[in-house]
Amino acid sequence: MFFGANLIKIEYGGWFPLLVAALVYGVMSTWKRGRELVVERLHAAEVPLDAFFQRITKHPPVRVPGTAVFMTARPEGAPPILVHHLTHNKVLHEQVVLLTVAMLNTPARVDTEAIDVHPVSSGFYRVIARFGFMETPDVPAALRLARDQGLNWHEEDTTFYLADLTLLANDGIGMSAFRDKVFIFLSRNARRATNFFQVPADRVVEIGMQLEI
Q: What is the pTM (predicted TM-score) of this model?
């Protein structure tokens, strides 16, 4: 009854808040779906860790001193940015950290769930850092906590590797071409990952990758 009584107001200006709400919903749903497509496409490009280790065993790369931190959205497999780096640069650091930042459904994390460190093989570590949704992610602070779980980490000899994604619209994969273009525009104007995760800008190497969505 309440809804029906207000329908007559649409003709007399009630259409405007409905239009604004529809636009806001369209932008938010496009961003959410676009991020899901990016994660799906990156997942499809992942290499199983067993296959990756077989590759570096068969063709050992040069190992250089220090720690490389590769940030990845999924705590599984070898992220595409790591494979891309090895393919083009032909080197790996002595210690490689595959870091995933997970946002919890609670305002703040508890100390027992702040960080998990899992040694993998050949100097590789899988690290999962968790933050509450009201907290500001701080990657260097999380890695300092990881020292208590056996990660030999020193900030002065660490390089952070992030993907610099160039997104290409493909309406045959997920969304329509128009929504793809809206998402690409939003991505270009989004806050940079280095700022969001408080990663020191002078220790970041960005590797360019193209991705169709």
A: 0.82
Local structure of residue 1 (DSSP, 8 states): -
Residue 110 to residue 114: CA distance in whole angstroms: 6
Confidence of residue 64 (pLDDT cuts 50, 70, 90): very high
Q: Residue by residue, what is the 3-state secondary structure of 129-159?
A: EEECCCCCCCHHHHHHHHHHHCCCCCHHHEE
- Confidence bin at 155 (pLDDT 50/70/90): confident
Which residue(s) pair with 98 in the sheet? 70, 126
CB 169 within 8 A of CB 17: no
| Rounded distance between C-alpha atoms, residue 189 and residue 91, angstroms | 33
Residue 104 burial (10 A CB sphere; 0-12, 13-18, 19+):
middle
- Torsion-angle region of residue 141: left (phi > 0), alpha (psi -120 to 50) or beta? alpha
> How confident is the model over 167-207, as pLDDT tens digits?
888 877 778 888 889 999 998 888 888 888 888 888 898 88
pLDDT bucket at 210, cuts 50 / 70 / 90: confident
Neighbouring-strand partners of residue 162: 206
Say if residues 171 and 113 touch (Cβ distance below 8 Å).
Answer: no
6 token code pair: 């207000």
